[in-house]
Write a structure and sequence with these properties.
Blueprint (H helix, E strand, L loop, with lengths): L6 H12 L5 H8 L3 H13 L19 E8 L5 H12 L4 E6 L6 E7 L2 H14 L4 E6 L13
Antiparallel strand pairs: 1-3, 1-4, 2-3
Helix pairs in contact: 1-2
Protein name: Leucine-responsive regulatory protein
InterPro entries: ArsR-like_HTH (IPR011991), AsnC-type_HTH_dom (IPR000485), Dimeric_a/b-barrel (IPR011008), Tscrpt_reg_AsnC-like (IPR019888), Tscrpt_reg_AsnC/Lrp_C (IPR019887), Tscrpt_reg_HTH_AsnC-type_CS (IPR019885), WH-like_DNA-bd_sf (IPR036388), WH_DNA-bd_sf (IPR036390)
GO molecular function: sequence-specific DNA binding
């Protein structure tokens, strides 16, 4: 479905990116419109796939997930069967917050959130027992400097 985004839509999206938990009345007030047109625009953007799943952001460290690893994976396997098995292994692991297939020397990068280095090792051992990889490099994030899911609208 093709959807055209105008400036009011962008204001709505920026407002929702800042806090999707706001009421429809609050969003309408912030964007300078009334409730019904704002609701209709949000509904259309949901139907068009512009607005996806809404969730809540949790504080990983407050919940005991103090370690964030970026895992670089190189593989010599590129067959469809291997890829399907690898993707299933990633999808089955809640520790994997993000996974990207890359161009260049590294095939995949994962963002893995765990309690500590020991928990990372458990994750790593389980992953390599399920799928064969050529090389794995784990980089521990010492400090998160910026994190956002907001797009620059």
């Amino acid at each position: 479905m093709d959807v055209r985004i105008d400036e009011l839509d962008r204001k709505i999206l920026r407002t929702m990116q800042a806090d999707a938990g706001q009421s429809l009345d609050e969003i309408a007030k912030v964007v300078g419109s009334s409730k019904t047109p704002v609701w209709n625009r949000i509904r259309k953007m949901r139907e068009a796939g512009v607005i996806g799943q809404q969730t809540v952001m949790l504080d990983a460290e407050a919940l005991g997930f103090e370690s964030c690893f970026f895992v670089l994976i190189r593989t010599s396997e590129h067959e469809a069967d291997w890829q399907a098995k690898f993707l299933k292994a990633l999808m089955d692991r809640p520790e994997v917050q993000e996974a990207h297939r890359l161009a260049g020397d590294i095939d995949y990068i994962l963002k893995v959130r765990v309690q500590n280095a020991r928990a990372y090792d458990v994750f790593y051992q389980a992953l390599i027992s399920e799928v064969r990889v050529f090389n794995v490099t784990a980089l521990l994030s010492m400090e998160q400097i910026k994190s956002t899911v907001a797009l620059p609208l």
